[in-house]
Amino acid sequence: MVDDNRLQRAVLRSSLTRWGYRVEEAGSAEEAIALATLTPPDLVLSDWMMPGMNGLEFCRAFRAMEREDYGYFVLLTSKAEKTNVAEGLDSGADDFLTKPVNSGELRARLNAGERILAMQRELRHKNRLISDTLNELQTLYDSIDSDLVEAKKLQQSLVRERFRDFGSAKLSLTLSPAGHVGGDLVGHFPAGEGVVGLYAIDVSGHGISSALMTARLAGYLSPAAPEQNLALLRRPDGGFAPRPPAEVAAHLNRLVLAEVETEHYFTLVIALCDLRTGAVRMAQCGHPHPLLQAADGQVRQVGQGGMPVGLIRDAEYDEVAFQLRPGDRLLLVSDGMVECPNQVGGIIGEEGLIAMLAGLADIPGPPLLETLIWSLDQRNPQPDFPDDISAILFEFSG
């Protein structure tokens, strides 16, 4: 309470202490500033007209002080003109009381100030809770982000060889998740003497659960552990022979539906390529049609579509066979390439991909895959690919 009139302070102090307030008195604005610096008040009652620093100047100085909580400021004045009220509000006052002060009106104004201070404290408390929660979420996000970076490295390590020269054929692979991790997987495995197995997988959905599914499927088609590879059969002499691709797809379908508790399914292309003759046996299970590019640059689709794996119990899968001649090459792509957006609001589509491949007939191996992805990126109006990108290129030289 700030007033140069001691009698006025005594009258107000009597009422305030009776109402339960703890009151600090000051006879001038300068003295009040010193008191407010030591003990920041919740509410201030200040006379307007005082010698030295007046009430408006004191209000401005009070508002300029650093403090954690808000202070409610009431000016006591005999001025009632609207211009004086506006000047007081501009200086930072919250309310006004006209002298002589009515006890009931004073109590009502202080009650209003207390309600505002209570709301301010509650808001500050909630803001602190929000800030603490955001800090916890940021810490959690940083931890998850770090884990996902490591998970991406592990998923990329599933494609151990991005290029392999078999002498009579060359194999190139690419895998690029849309996020940290994704549901695409490509790979190859030895499938008996002079035969290499290829597989391209696209698990439904995106993110961590899809990536975990690809990791499990990688174990089922592992090149490092042929005894665990579902695409191989052990021969009587202890060696391994390839299982027909359609049979592999059916076996994976039964396994996923019976043993893997997940709502995910996946599309698949699995092929057996004879490195000596160029003969290919292949099953296509919901995956985009593989593209066969002849030595003269002509491109055609191979495969019959088929059902995805892990979707329908007892699904049957067909097998196709075709012949690669020297100079031919086989391209397996995920739907992230086929369904990549274009600049006119549609998608690239299989026809668009065929046209792109036809125009790149002279580019071999990994540079072809890099150029395809670059070409897709140039046509994509979005800053990033909306889906995972993966592909296998098998080039047969004979």
From TrEMBL:
Q: What InterPro entries does its record include?
A: Bact_Sigma-Reg, CheY-like_superfamily, PPM-type-like_dom_sf, PPM-type_phosphatase-like_dom, Sig_transdc_resp-reg_receiver
Q: Which PANTHER family match?
A: STAGE II SPORULATION PROTEIN E (PTHR43156:SF2), STAGE II SPORULATION PROTEIN E-RELATED (PTHR43156)
Q: Which residues carry this modification: 4-aspartylphosphate?
A: D47
The protein's name is SpoIIE family protein phosphatase
Q: Which Pfam families match?
A: Response_reg (PF00072), SpoIIE (PF07228)
SMART domains on file: PP2C_SIG (SM00331), REC (SM00448)
Taxonomic classification: Bacteria, Pseudomonadati, Pseudomonadota, Alphaproteobacteria, Rhodobacterales
Q: Which UniProt keywords apply?
A: Hydrolase, Phosphoprotein
Q: Which GO terms describe its molecular function?
A: phosphatase activity
Q: Where is the Response regulatory domain?
A: 1-114
Its BP terms in the Gene Ontology are:
phosphorelay signal transduction system
